[in-house]
Amino acid sequence: MLIKRPSDVxxxxxxxxxxxxxxxxxxxxxxxxxxxxxxxxxxxxxxxxRLPGVKRGPFATDxxxxxxxxxxxxxxxxEFGTDxxxxxxxxxxxxxxxxxxxxxxxxxxxxxxxxxxxxKMFPLEERIYRLRCVEAWSMVIPWIGFPLGDLIKxxxxxxxxxxxxxxxxxxxxxxxxxxxxxxxxxxxEGLRMDEAMHPLTILAVGLYGQAMPNxxxxxxxxxxxxxxxxxxxxxIVKLRFVESQPPTSWNLSAPREYGxxxxxxxxxxxxxxxxxxxxxxxxxxxxxxxxxxxxAAEVASLYRGMDxxxxx
Length: 312
Description:
Sulfite Oxidase, Chain A, domain 2, single chain, alpha+beta, eight-stranded mixed β-sheet, about 20% strand
């Protein structure tokens, strides 16, 4: 498995989102229909639509948001390659329409959901969450989405449903990284039911006011802000409600390094590096890593009585 260290990015070198958007608005006469996914970037990703009617959601951090450029050009998305720049250069091949999500397993209403119909079911919220990656880098991202728990309630899981298993699209013709053996494909992930139902857990369909860029997991991805970023599966095509703990891609690949729970715990080191400190992209100095990524007040009770060193 290839892990790369993030390069330092001076804050003075980052164009603010406000300047970026004003420049684009002038160029297109203020039209709100479609904007470029990235200004001045060599990415070939297709243009994406603005998301109307988005309201500010709960739990938002007041920390400075990471620059749009960094959010969309420094990504872990192994389906498009192992280098952080691969997704922004290659993800234009991903076709996000038509798109459906199959729901089955221990659920009262198994069905196939069309993404556009799904987007009409729930009001969209902007939630400014931290994202902490296992390689000791982090971002603050204004995600747009809706609580996963709201969808789960509509699907009526049975009493036997103890976990939710997620599956990513399998399409090597669109996702060139799937032609490699870096991971077993398709990518799979899972949450315990109480984690999935927690109000912090969302299905994200956009960021920074626009539909989700391909390289960030279009058209829909999971965001669980108290867990390491690899837990947030992208380009979801299936939800399965199961009784037993489902397999997860990184745990299958390297069980000694990646556990099922994947909670941000600064006291549990990765076998190859410390997790006690992190570097926020756009900053030079490292900062102390917070337990549960700073969301301990909201989620620590989910793990009361668990040995968080064993259940990492």
